[in-house]
Specification:
alpha/beta; globular; 13 helices; six-stranded parallel sheet
Length: 293
C-alpha cells in the first residue's frame, strides 16, 4: 500500500490533504528531476570533519570534552603569541586526580600536536614538585642563553593536591611570573564527593595564596577564560587559579574556537613596563611590597 494513499484520520488521503499537499508536490518535482536541475542529480556541500579537529587550530566549530579543551588551550595561547610576534613555548606539569584524572592521558595522546607548538608535558612525581617545576619555567630570561621570549605554564591537580601544595603555590605566586609567560593552576574540584574522601573546593586556598581565580561555567569558557587567565597572569605577575568541576570537565559540547575571540586592551604598556622589573628583581623582594602586586 502506498504511503500517499494512507489516511490522516479524517478519511482524506495524505497525498491530497491540505496540510501535506505541498510536501507531496515537492516530492513529485524531485522524483521527476525538475527540482534537481537538468541532470537530475542533487548536490550538497558536506563539511569535512575528523577526530583531530579538536586540536587543529584552523577548525572553528569543534566538538570536544572539557579535558580536551584544556589540552587545546595552550595551543591557542602559543598561536596567539606568534600572531603578536612573540616566540614563546609552553610547559605543563601536575599530578592526576579526578576530575582531572584523564588530563595527562589526553596530553600524551596529543603529544604530536603539542610538539608542533613547542609545548612540553612532564607529569610530576607529586603536586608539590610539579608546582616547583612550573615555577622554574617562569625564570626563563633570567640567565643568558634563553631560546624563547617566555614560557607559559599550566599546573594541574585534584583539590586535595591543591591543599598539600599550598606552600609551593604561595612561594611561586610571590616570586611572580614572566611578562611573556604566565601560569594557570588547574584545580579539579569534587563538590559532590563522588571520588574523594572529602568534598572540596579550592577558591579559599587560592585566595589564601593571594591568587586570583577564574571559574568557567561552560566548555566555551574553558577556552575564553583560559586565554584571559594567561593575560591576567602576565598583567599581574600572579599565578591564576582555574576551577574545573566534574559537571564541566567531564562533559562534552560543540563550541567555537577562535584565536582572537576578543581584544585585550590596556595590557601592552603595562607588560612592557613589567619587563623592566625583571623576575630576578622580584625574587629579591622580601617585604610586603610583593603583596601590593
Amino acid at each position: 500500500r502506498s504511503v500517499r494513499d494512507m489516511s490522516c484520520g479524517d478519511g482524506i488521503p495524505l497525498g491530497t490533504h491540505s496540510k501535506t499537499g505541498t510536501f507531496w508536490s515537492q516530492l513529485d518535482r524531485f522524483e521527476s528531476g525538475s527540482a534537481a536541475g537538468a541532470t537530475g542529480e542533487l548536490t550538497m556541500a558536506v563539511m569535512e570533519v575528523g577526530l583531530d579537529d579538536k586540536y587543529r587550530l584552523d577548525a572553528k566549530r569543534i566538538f570536544l570534552s572539557g579535558t580536551q579543551a584544556l589540552v587545546r588551550l595552550p595551543m591557542l595561547q602559543r598561536e596567539r603569541d606568534r600572531a603578536q610576534g612573540l616566540n614563546t613555548a609552553g610547559f605543563i606539569s601536575g599530578y592526576r586526580g579526578s576530575p582531572l584524572g584523564m588530563y595527562d592521558h589526553a596530553l600524551w595522546r596529543a603529544k604530536t600536536f603539542l610538539k608542533q607548538h613547542d609545548i612540553e608535558f612532564s607529569p610530576g612525581l607529586n603536586e608539590d614538585l610539579a608546582a616547583t617545576a612550573v615555577w622554574g619555567s617562569q625564570q626563563v630570561g633570567m640567565f643568558p642563553g634563553a631560546k624563547v621570549d617566555g614560557v607559559f605554564g599550566i599546573w594541574y591537580g585534584k583539590g586535595p593536591g591543591v591543599d598539600r601544595s599550598v606552600d609551593a603555590l604561595k612561594h611561586a605566586n610571590s616570586a611572580g611570573t614572566s611578562p611573556n609567560g604566565g601560569v594557570i593552576a588547574l584545580a579539579g574540584d569534587d563538590h559532590g564527593c563522588q571520588s574523594s574522601t572529602l568534598a572540596h573546593q579550592s577558591e579559599q586556598v587560592f585566595a589564601a595564596a593571594l591568587m586570583p581565580v577564574v571559574n568557567p561555567a561552560t566548555l566555551q569558557d574553558y577556552l575564553d577564560l583560559g586565554i584571559l587567565g594567561f593575560a591576567l597572569s602576565r598583567y599581574s605577575s600572579c599565578w591564576v587559579g582555574f576551577k574545573a568541576i566534574s559537571e564541566t570537565v567531564e562533559s562534552s559540547a560543540s563550541i567555537v574556537s577562535d584565536l582572537h575571540p576578543f581584544r585585550l586592551i590596556g595590557f601592552a604598556n603595562v607588560i612592557q613596563a613589567a619587563l623592566a622589573v625583571t623576575l630576578f628583581a622580584r625574587l629579591l623582594m622580601r617585604d610586603l611590597s610583593m603583596d601590593h602586586r
